[in-house]
Specification:
A hairpin with a 3-residue loop joins strand 1 (5-9) and strand 2 (13-17). Helix 3 (141-151) packs across helix 7 (238-259), helix 4 (153-175) runs antiparallel to helix 5 and helix 6 (218-233) packs across helix 7. The protein is elongated, with a radius of gyration of 24 Å. By secondary structure, the chain is an alpha/beta fold. 51% of the residues lie in helices and 18% in strands. The longest helix has 33 residues, at 105-137.
């Protein structure tokens, strides 16, 4: 696990996973990063490059100085008198939306669930349109993804885990470089699009498992699978796990399809029905 894991590079970069970071008074560091906590720069302490908090606040005490940029993802930047920020400062949070309201009791829980449900249903509609377009323009792409998932579920999951771990460490690497932080949104967008396209293959796989009928078109199987997954994502608490697994296998599918060396095994041909045999005779 990464909870309460500290990384100190050459005693000049303070990074913590699962907790808060504090730059002691009168100390100079290059970067201060916290994943899941606050970044506090004590009085008269100095950060030469960046101070970044993911899921927390950046707290700058009296006389604190940050020569580079200051960012807070999911929090605020709190400045006391005499603070100096040499670069840019920005917050990426929604204090009146889902992220902030989730911890404010039953009333806010229902608000969170309502907006979350709207978002997931809207994402499903977009996915349905995109999937139908892909099935029309490239009829074999999504079926190939579904076949790969059927033949290599474990390997697909491993590719997905590898993708998430790689994305995490790539984000850390970009965050500790001055010019890398603007690339994090681009990296995130690439991961989201990859997971979205891969999840369409997962939806087709689910539909094929539920509708094992050769008379059903791929479009019908895809829409049924997507509808089932969408309903599952709307279940409180359990839905988040479903979203995570679908995205994980979606990432793994795309990477396995793009970089995997295994060839697709021929799909089993369904047994002809009596009606089809009589027509041939």
């Amino acid at each position: 696990m990464l909870a309460q894991t500290d990384i100190n590079v050459n005693n000049t970069n303070i990074i913590r996973f699962g907790g808060s970071v504090t730059v002691p008074e009168n100390q100079v560091v290059e970067n201060a990063l916290a994943f899941g906590g606050n970044v506090t720069v004590s009085p008269n302490a100095r950060v030469l490059d960046t101070a970044v908090a993911f899921g927390g606040d950046v707290i700058l005490k009296t006389g604190a100085r940050v020569d580079g940029d200051t960012y807070s993802f999911g929090g605020k930047i709190l400045e006391e008198p005499g603070v100096i920020i040499g670069g840019e400062k920005a917050t990426f949070s929604d204090r009146h939306g889902m992220m902030y309201g989730y911890d404010r009791g039953r009333r806010s829980f229902f608000a969170y669930y309502f907006f979350s449900a709207i978002f997931r249903v809207s994402a499903a509609v977009v996915g349905a349109i995109l999937g139908l377009i892909i099935l029309h323009t490239s009829p074999q792409f999504l079926p190939n993804l579904a076949t790969k998932l059927r033949q290599n579920p474990g390997l697909t999951g491993l590719w997905g885990v590898g993708a998430i771990v790689s994305f995490f460490f790539a984000s850390v690497f970009l965050a500790i470089t001055l010019i890398g932080i603007p690339l994090i949104p681009l990296l995130s967008l690439t991961a989201v699009i990859t997971a979205l396209v891969g999840s369409l293959g997962v939806a087709l796989f689910v539909g094929q498992c539920l509708i094992n009928n050769r008379d059903r078109a791929l479009q019908q199987q895809f829409l049924v699978g997507l509808a089932i997954l969408t309903v599952l994502t709307l279940i409180p608490f359990f839905g988040g796990l479903v979203v995570f697994l679908v995205n994980l296998f979606g990432l793994g599918l795309i990477l396995l399809w793009r970089f995997g060396r295994g060839n697709l095994l021929p799909m089993e041909q369904p047994t002809p029905t009596e009606k089809e045999l009589s027509n041939k005779n």
